[in-house]
Amino acid sequence: MDQPPSPLPEGQCRYILLVPGIKGQRCACAHFSHNQSTPGATCDCGHMACYHVKTAEQPAEKRELDLLKQRLEVVERQLDREQQGAFGSLVSRLGELEDRLDKTHDEATQEIRTSYRNINRVWQSVELLEQRCLQLHEAMRTESIRVTKIDHQMRSVADRQLELADADLGLEERLDNLETHHVPVSPASRASTPQFSHATQSSVPAEAKKPTPLPISVDRTPPAKGTSGPWTVHISLLPSSSQPFPFERDTNAYKRCLSRGLHRTVVVAGADSHSFCAAVSTAFDAVLKGRPWMPLKARLCDATQLRGLPMLRPLDKKLVDAQYDLEFLREHCAVSDSSGNVESLYIAMRHDTLSWHFLRRSPRFLDGLETCWSFDPYLDPDDAQEDDDSACDSRPSAGHIMPQLSSLKRRASDATQTSVFGSASVGGEGENARKKMTIVSLSTIIDLPRRVEKV
Fold first, then answer.
1. Secondary structure of residue 189 in the 3-state scheme
2. Is residue 350 a contact partner of residue 432, using CB atoms and an 8 Å limit?
3. Are 282 and 331 in the same domain?
4. Cβ atoms within 10 A of the Cβ of 394, count?
5. Same domain for 92 and 48
6. Where in the sequence does UniProt note compositional bias of the Polar residues kind (predicted)?
7. Would the pTM of this model clear 0.85, i.e. be above it?
8. Which 8-state DSSP code applies to residue 38?
């Protein structure tokens, strides 16, 4: 039986080359490559198969690479075994984390929605609070205006109470004087007194109703010059310094001035000029508006037809800039009572005058007298519309009414001393207009005077 041919070698060629000068040089063939073009087992290098090594020797690097591959395979298999157990737990943990994340996201979304709803409610509450604040501010403004009005009314009431107290003291003093001198009350004074009842008047005997003057001795001794401290006096601010007489009580002109605070009882802190000027400037500041003023010289008229009516004229030029202390006022300007106490003073602006147009638009001082501002042909221009359209500078002074009222001027028996209190009875108008009982030189006991008193 034929043996199978031996396999051809695979290794490198070990043939020793016969190169001159080089001994032991072998063929450079690395592995046997059978040359098919020549018969026999010949390598491409030209040497026979017998010169080649049967098996090819592997290099050291390749062996190490194979070892590394084997070790890597072992490590990979080990890691696969270890990771197969951990991967399941990792997947489950990841699933739990995803579920927890989804749940947390849903809760956060719900909380955000709740927060937005709460924010909307807060903004609605803020809007309601703003509206409430506006309502409260409006209510406070209304209350402030009301309190201011009440304050003005209280001040007006206080001034009127002061005048009433002043009048009460004057009335008591006059009653004391009458009781001291045992003076009988004349029927004329009773007839002009609104406070006494008709029954009292009817009880007077008929023979006592004749208008006889009162036999009262007039004592005009002034108080001591060293007197100091607060005192009160009734002051009338006249529209013009050239006005010869003050407005008579119960006339429209008097009521207009009274409604705008031109007749006031002023409290003066002391008897010096500074206290008097400061008190007057403060009391009449709304009308004076810082313009210079001066007191007027007043003297009771002793004429038969004008007895008891104050006559006014400006101060002499040398006295205008004098010190307006109490002694100066008592000597030159004041209307005093029988005891020498100052009853009333009259002042006016030095260079300016007051028109009815200006006074109509001045702040109201006393309520209840606005009807006196209706159109009056004796006080206002011929046309009521003309008074609204004419310029302020061209308007006449409110005191320039004497030519229009000359035919309506009261007689001396009708004139009374200017006072805030009391009232005068008015008769029919005409040639013999408004008759009253004859007034004696001293005021009657019911004509409430204004005087200087200690506070």
1. helix
2. no
3. yes
4. 8
5. no
6. 189-204
7. no
8. S
